Amino acid sequence: MKIGILCHSTYGGSGVVASELGKLLAKRGHEVHFVTVGRPFRLATYQHNIFVHEVAAFHHPLFEVPPYFLTQVNKTVEVLRCYQLDILHAHYAVPHSLGAHLARQIFGRHVPVITTLHGTDTSLVGAHQEFYEITRYGLEASDAVTVVSSFLAEQTRGTFYYTKELPVLYNFVDTDLFTPEVAAERHLLTPKGEALLVHLSNFRPLKRVQDVIQVFHRVRQQIPARLVMIGDGPDMPAAQTLAQSLGVSKDILFLGQQDTIAPILAASDVMLFPSCCESFGLAALEALSCGVPVVATRSGGVPEVIEHGRVGFLTRVGEIEEMARLTLLLLNDRSLRQEMSARARSYVLRKFNADQWVVKYEQLYQSVLNKSYGG
Ligand code: GMT
After folding, report:
1. How far is CA 26 from the centre of its chain?
2. How far apart are alpha carbons 326 and 269 in whole angstroms?
């Protein structure tokens, strides 16, 4: 098949899922065409069967900002014409679903459009009045819509009155890349042999990075520990200020955005994941794949990823004391930690390995093509 993928290329779960899916599809012999503003960061190296069509910024004095949506649609039409794509797969509804529909309309042939919803595209952005109508149209006009958790399926039905099928295609992870074996040398991160906590996100308010600092502060009062914060975003200054005021900043490494995260995750003892609303939680899955138990919140689709008491622990949102207690429980009990770590790894291999999910996407493409062309 020839597959066009529209996705966001900046740091974020939807772009990661789209890129990893594209890479796997390409490995399986499909021709994959990304049409993106900037090169997706997980597509840094050349891979056979992958094409990246970068959308140019068009500056003009009349435009306050370059109209990326329009140039992306234009580029998608060019790619449809030039490569005769079989399918368009839009990741993140806004604006890619609408963009794919518009491109195929201009192209003039019914190329099936699949939209994958990732969470904030419907909850935060699409549900907003300014985007509601175009998001709803994007879903209705798609030949298939997929979601990354059952929670998101429910939410999508409730918000958009969507009544057609909503296959749940979970996030997945490359278990060869995210594996305990790639752990960075621990002494570089914990020179005195301290316990090591990790957090990974885009530091947006819903990630509650201040809770991470608060939990770490409580842990740090009990045992020697260090915290690695991976990522960047609007709440970075607030997290740093809080760390200063609690007197723990010398034990925290704010690493910023990193391209290669598996070695850091794999070297850690516990991941903290206190989001207030999360459709799935790809970062938590990547930690589990590295054999790292996760202490998280029971929010959105997270309980579909983390089995409480088996591969990590779940608390209510904002329950800092309880998160700290459970983190300390894991850090102080080596055998419990090792047990959970081993269970986490085999659970991910069984339930979230990439190969299993890419086949489901392939089957979906095929069934949509069959419906469109009566094949
Ligand atoms: O906020 C983020 O984590 C980024 C966002 C995105 O779309 O890039 O992530 C969403 O999609 C991921 C991949 O499907 C999911 O694992 C995340 O849970 C989801 N984020 C939220 O729902 C907040």
Report:
1. 20
2. 13
Q: Looking at residue 182, what DSSP letter applies?
A: G
Work out the pLDDT band at 94, boundaries 50, 70, 90: very high
Q: Same CATH fold, 180-351 and 2-172+353-373?
A: yes
What's the rounded Cα separation, in Å, for the pair 219 and 225?
A: 7
Average pLDDT over the chain, rounded to an integer: 95
Domain range summary for the chain, segments of one domain joined by +: 2-172+353-373, 180-351
CATH number of this structure's domain 2-172+353-373, picked from the four choices 3.30.470.30, 3.40.50.2000, 1.25.10.10, 3.40.50.740: 3.40.50.2000
Atom of ligand 1 nearest to the CA of 123: 22
- Does 12 sit in the ligand 1 pocket, CB within 6 Å? yes
Ligand 1 in contact with 13 (CB < 6 A)?
yes
Distance CA 285, CA 173 (A): 7
- Alpha carbon of 310 to ligand 1 centroid (Å): 23
Cβ(297) – ligand 1 distance below 6 Å: no
Q: What are phi and psi of 225, to 5 degrees?
A: -155, 155
| Ligand 1 close to Cβ of residue 17 (< 6 A) | yes
C-alpha 31/C-alpha 1 separation (Å) is: 6
Statement: 180-351 belongs to CATH 1.10.240.10 = no
- Amino acid 37: pLDDT: 93
- Ligand 1 atom with least separation from CA of 148: 14
When pLDDT is averaged across residues 82-90 and rounded to a whole number, the result is 98
Mutate to test the pocket of ligand 1, among 209, 282, 298 (most ligand atoms within 8 A of CB): 282
Q: How far does residue 118's CA lie from ligand 1's centre (Å)? A: 6
Does the beta carbon of 352 sit less than 6 angstroms from any atom of ligand 1?
no
339 token code pair: 């047990």
* All residues at 6 or more sequence positions from 359 whose CB lies less than 8 Å from its CB, including other chains: none
pLDDT band at 375 (very low <50, low <70, confident <90, very high): low
Residue with CA closest to ligand 1 atom 21: 278
372 pLDDT more than 90: no
Ligand 1 pocket test, candidate residues 118, 203, 275, 297, most atoms within 8 A of CB: 118
How far are the Cα atoms of 116, 187, 244, 271 from residue 192, in angstroms, in the given order?
A: 45, 7, 21, 20
Q: What H or E segment, with its residue span, contains residue 252?
A: strand 252-256
